[in-house]
Amino acid sequence: MKKIVQIIHTIIAYPCILISTIIASISAAVLGFFNPFSKISTGSLRLWGHSLLWLTGIKLVVEGLENLEPGKAYVFAANHLGALDIPAMLYAIPSTARFIAKKELFKIPIFSRGMRNSGMLKIDRGNSEEAKKTLEEAIKTIKDGCSVIVFAEGTRSRTGQIQNFKKGAFILALNGKIPIIPTVICGTQYVVPKKDKLIKRGTVKIKFLKPVETEHTEFEQRNNLVRAVRESVVSEFEPEYNRE
Fold first, then answer.
1. Number of domains in the chain
2. pLDDT tens-place string over residues 151-209
3. What span, in angstroms and rounded, lies between the C-alpha atoms of 176 and 139?
4. Within-domain flag for 244
5. Residue 2 burial by Cβ neighbours in a 10 Å radius (0-12, 13-18, 19+)
6. DSSP state letter for 217
7. Which of 128, 93, 123 has the alpha carbon at shortest distance from 208?
8. Non-local CB neighbours of 115 within 8 Å, separated by 6+ positions
9. Exposed, middle or buried: residue 92 (CB in 10 Å: 0-12, 13-18, 19+)?
10. CATH number of the domain residue 54 falls in
């Protein structure tokens, strides 16, 4: 009986998610035309994130909000487990924040226009010069008061465990002297398991750890910074969270 309910829920949820995403993309494209970082534009993105969590039957637990100073911009360095990481992060962060996203996402019709107009940043991981330009643009974005979210592993984990962190987020933070928020995502890998496309209800968690200041950290110490932030994320990660 539980399997049947799950199948029905999945059949209903997928088209609703598609419709919600199309509406949100059009809204982001229109609102972003005027000001991509306005409160109403940010509110629209957070509403989209909330709608996807609601449609999938996911309850989001957010911890560590006391570590975020109102009005301050950060580099959020998070692990990456599942497709819901993006909407969950947008909804969990109470202030203006945008993603550095892989270039492939900017090829999706309608969705790509919404991403561009809302201030999302495209990165070409296979082109070091273009990636450098993206990081420079991200510094300007943060200086204007908008936080930047980076999945520090570079891509979604295939094992459910936290992989090695790439240096991009940390170079960005060091060059801009921007504090890093180590961010732990737990449970999203079980919402739509890789071997089963059925959507599983449950609870996922996002935990914001204490900020890591970079103002007095030298660029030569970047490897130590990467290691320290990853270790802090690993120490708080719960691999069995939301697993039956």
1. 1
2. 999 888 888 899 999 988 899 999 999 999 999 999 999 998 777 788 999 999 999 99
3. 6
4. no
5. exposed
6. -
7. 93
8. 25, 28, 101, 105, 106, 122
9. buried
10. 3.40.1130.10
Closest to 75 in 3D by CA, of 237, 228, 239, 211: 211
Would you say residue 243 lies in a domain? Answer: no
Specify whether the CB–CB gap between 156 and 80 falls below 8 A: yes
Strand bridging mode 202-208 / 180-186: antiparallel
Per DSSP, which regions of the chain are E strands?
Answer: 58-63, 75-78, 97-102, 121-123, 147-151, 180-186, 202-208
Instruction: Give the Cα separation of 19 and 8 in Å (integer).
Output: 18
Structural domain of residue 51, as residue ranges?
Answer: 2-236
Distance CA 122, CA 242 (A): 31
Structure tokens at 73: 């911009």
* Cβ neighbours for 88, distance < 8 A, ≥ 6 positions apart: 49, 53, 58, 60, 185, 188, 204, 206
Residue 80 corresponds to which tokens in the numbers above?
């990456």
CA dist list (Å): 6 to 82, 83, 88, 192, 221: 19, 18, 21, 11, 49
Q: What is the pLDDT of residues 77-125, one digit of tens each?
A: 999 999 899 999 999 999 999 998 888 888 888 888 898 899 898 887 7
Query: What's this model's pTM, rounded to 2 decimal places?
Result: 0.93
Does 242 reside within a domain?
A: no
- 129 occurs within a structural domain: yes
For residue 4, how far is the Cα from the chain centroid?
A: 32
